[in-house]
Amino acid sequence: MNRWSQLAPWCRGLCWSSDGALLFCLGAAKAAAQTPVRIALIETLSGPLANGGEAAFRNLVWATERVNARAGLALPGGPRPLQMVRYDSKGQSEEALAALRSAIDDGIRIVMQGNSSAVAAALIDAIGKHNEREPDKRVVFLNYAAVDPVLTNERCSYWHFRFDAHADMRMAALMQVLREDRSVQRIYLIGQDYSFGQAVLREGRRQLGLLRPDVQIVGDELHPLGRVKDFIPYATKIKASGAQAVLTGNFGNDLTLLVKAARDIGFEGKFYTFYGNALGVPGVLGEAGVGKVVAVAEWFANVPGESAQAFYRSFRQRFPRPQDDYVHMRMQLMMEALAQSIEKAGSLQADAVAHQLARAQVALGGHAGSMRLADHQFQQPLRVVLMDRQGTPGVAFDAEGSGYGFRVIKTLSAEQAEQPHSCKMQRPQR
To answer: What is the C-alpha separation between 254 and 223, in angstroms, rounded?
Structure first.
């Protein structure tokens, strides 16, 4: 929602304080009067995986507020604010395609999505076809979490930009820790049965074979996405296998329920995860997770440095409820890259914005990255973290009020995290 009405009283107070404040308020008032630049969020906002969609929405709202607080987008004709518009995909590709059609009919030309690689693939295909049919109504697609590697390889698109590290990049970062963890000799692979989950297990098998051929894979299975309510049978198999660790790309309730079931039956092994640092996992595991839950992402609350910690504190001030404590730096950089690209293009035309997005370089909160022109895969540092008690060295902040947080145990530079691609980008005539 547009928050200018909430900023107006503050501006009125500042307008009397100095010329600079007066100019800011006049700029904000002018931006508020302009038509907002609307962005469609097509995401799972209902059902068992809705918590991930709501977390994305909070992050994107906060990112738009930051842009709007500096008077919005600087465009010919005056500044314009950003506004997020929600469309519920229900986690289904067909629903997402219907939402895309609605967004285009509503005049929106910027789409964001992330919490399903299958949905992202459907959107990439549909947007490509739409942009060919209706060049005057072209759409750009910014992806913050759909990490199946094919999306910037075989299925890469000029109109698609991924700001998250893809699954193979994340797996390679995790393996930097796992290859040194000699306590793990038997591992269980489990994931969600769709394109992303399949890609995670496939790459896990490949990288284990290269880096830890001594590790025995004692289980390798997929389960339905977002439909399992009782993971006790899966956890029982994991424990019975003698596994000392679990490797999974599960997210949302599928991860929370899995680790809860493992705790309930007394599994004492480690969890090597993509998303084990939030959305209920720390609180569910508690003391049982200390030293046992490993996660990987581009940024975490306990990344060293004052700018990073100040950035995190500002997020917690904006969203103080413990259950809302899940900040995604990549979404913040994505919005900054979009704002930068629109302003450099001096236009909202998809062609001009995409041209600038493909060259975007952004920094915020002690983190920086750049878009790779060849495949539109964002390049940035990655961190691997380990769950520990709040207050221990490196754990200034806990997660979701649980009393447990994550300390950085491995950092890969953008150059170290980068991987080759097979994209053959088809670029439209400009």
So the answer is: 9
Pick the CATH number of 168-297+381-417 from 3.40.1670.10, 3.40.50.2300, 3.40.190.10, 3.40.50.300: 3.40.50.2300
Q: Where is pLDDT greater, at 201 or 19?
A: 201
What residue spans define the domains of the chain? 34-165+325-379, 168-297+381-417
Amino acid at 212: R
What number of other Cβ atoms are within 10 A of residue 24's Cβ? Answer: 17
The model's pLDDT over 167-188, given as tens digits with 9 standing for 90+, comes to: 999 999 999 999 999 999 999 9
DSSP 8-state secondary structure symbol assigned to residue 164: S
| Percent of residues, the chain, with pLDDT higher than 70 | 92
**Structure tokens of 57?**
């929405």
Question: How is 195-221 classified by DSSP, letter by letter?
Answer: HHHHHHHHHHHHHHHHH-TTSEEEEEE
Q: Is 283 exposed, middle or buried (0-12, 13-18, 19+ CB in 10 A)?
A: buried
- Pick from 83-92, 129-138, 181-190, 280-289: least confident: 280-289
* C-alpha dihedral sign at 323, 333, 424, 210: negative
In tens, the pLDDT along 338-376 reads: 999 999 999 999 999 999 999 999 999 999 999 999 999
Q: How buried is residue 76: exposed, middle or buried, by Cβ count under 10 Å (0-12/13-18/19+)?
A: exposed
How far is Cα of residue 284 from the mean position of the Cα atoms in its chain? 22
DSSP E strands in 254-302: the ranges are 270-273, 293-297
